[in-house]
Design brief:
Radius of gyration: 16 Å
Helix content: over 70%
Order of helices and strands: HHHHHHHHH
Strand content: under 5%
Oligomer: single chain
Structural class: mainly alpha
Distance between the termini: 58 Å
Mean pLDDT: 89
Number of strands: 0
Length: about 200
């Protein structure tokens, strides 16, 4: 039996990346080590827990498998000790957030398909998995979640989930489909942020 199947790798990597983004936000807000750990865990685990709760997969994988919590805590520790180095990257939180968005959109949609959901509900669950952790992270520091206020965000996650559905329907390998889905999400998210693209808003 494969101890580290693709879905687990995607989840753990997404947990780590989102965990760092949450911890960096905590550092930027000058929170203490406990606050950094809380935001790291919330950002890294909330999306997957929402996904599992909606699928009826209880207890959520993040609680049943200690590797998830350890990964989120490790991400917080990396940000705590290495935030100066990470800050030298161009918009580190946005880049990490884009990568986490892609990883969770792909893993969330893939798990939904494994549970027998139809394509549209699977895409929706992929999007919820992707945006859930970031939304909880932002709410904990009293910010409007990025999914509601920033550049193309949920749309990017939706594109990644759609790619997973198409890949599964055409019989492509899970690995190649996952890579294409993650790259597409990151590219759309980063380009939209750099160019200031936004979803349409109601006219005033």
């Amino acid at each position: 039996m494969d101890v580290f199947p693709l879905g687990l790798w995607l989840d753990l990597l997404g947990t780590f990346v989102f965990g760092i983004s949450g911890a960096l936000l905590a550092v930027r807000r000058e929170l203490d080590v406990f606050g950094i750990a809380v935001l790291s865990v919330a950002a890294g685990l909330a999306g997957g827990m929402i996904r599992d709760a909606l699928l009826g997969a209880t207890p959520p994988t993040a609680l049943a498998d200690s590797r998830y919590l350890l990964t989120a805590i490790a991400a917080g520790a990396c940000a705590f000790f290495g935030h100066r180095l990470l800050a030298k990257l161009n918009k580190p939180v946005m880049i990490l957030d884009a990568l986490g968005l892609g990883l969770f959109a792909v893993s969330g949609c893939g798990k939904a398909l494994d549970f027998g959901l139809d394509p549209l509900p699977a895409i929706l669950l992929g999007v919820l998995t992707a945006v859930g952790g970031g939304a909880v992270r932002d709410l904990l520091v009293v910010e409007t979640p990025r999914v509601l206020r920033e550049e193309i965000y949920a749309f990017a996650a939706m594109v990644g989930a759609v790619i997973v559905v198409i890949g599964a329907g055409l019989g492509f390998s899970e690995t190649s489909t996952a890579v294409v889905g993650v790259v597409a999400v990151v590219a759309i998210r980063v380009v939209s942020a750099l160019r200031g693209w936004r979803a349409p808003r109601a006219p005033r």
